[in-house]
Amino acid sequence: MNKHPLRQQIEEIVKLTDDEFDFVLQHFRKKSFKKHQIILHEGDYAQFDFFVVKGLMRVTKLDFDGKEHILQFGMENWWITDAEAFHNKTKSTLIVDCLENTETLSLSLESKEKLSRELPKMQTFFLKKTTNGYIALQKRILCFLSSNANDRYHNLLTLYPGLIQRVPKAMIASYLGVTRETLSRLSKIKA
């Protein structure tokens, strides 16, 4: 029997009994979104952290010239939100939208804190997930600072092999910080 995807992810870090997982699941709300639906606008409060069960989302920032910069993609088994707005209860500076029809489990900050208090294993889980996310972000920033476009592109292919087939090339270019033309040249170069 297949385990629930959220339980699988949690149990990569901490083990749960069936009763504990049922308790955890009670704190989440199922939410479904349509392709192209914006679930968090800039200026809104980020009420939820989303665990992606099925589908694909992204986090973007528009600069003063209206150019879109993609900070993050969120595929199955990933968490996605404007972390600063969510944790600080401030207005979002980012946009979160769906690139495919998406099913999520949403968790409010209050529920996250309650879960952490009442089931300390979950505090350990959230701490390790946050730490792993911070490390991944640090690696991405270092890659941007020390790698050329070709290396960034092949790093993306290595880390997220299925993403390139699910996302338009213009979005991949934005994520990598290159032009569409540069991406086209990179995709023709062998690693």
From TrEMBL:
<dbReference type="InterPro" id="IPR014710">
    <property type="entry name" value="RmlC-like_jellyroll"/>
</dbReference>
<protein>
    <submittedName>
        <fullName>Crp/Fnr family transcriptional regulator</fullName>
    </submittedName>
</protein>
<dbReference type="InterPro" id="IPR018490">
    <property type="entry name" value="cNMP-bd_dom_sf"/>
</dbReference>
<dbReference type="Pfam" id="PF00027">
    <property type="entry name" value="cNMP_binding"/>
</dbReference>
<feature type="domain" description="Cyclic nucleotide-binding">
    <location>
        <begin position="31"/>
        <end position="114"/>
    </location>
</feature>
<dbReference type="InterPro" id="IPR000595">
    <property type="entry name" value="cNMP-bd_dom"/>
</dbReference>
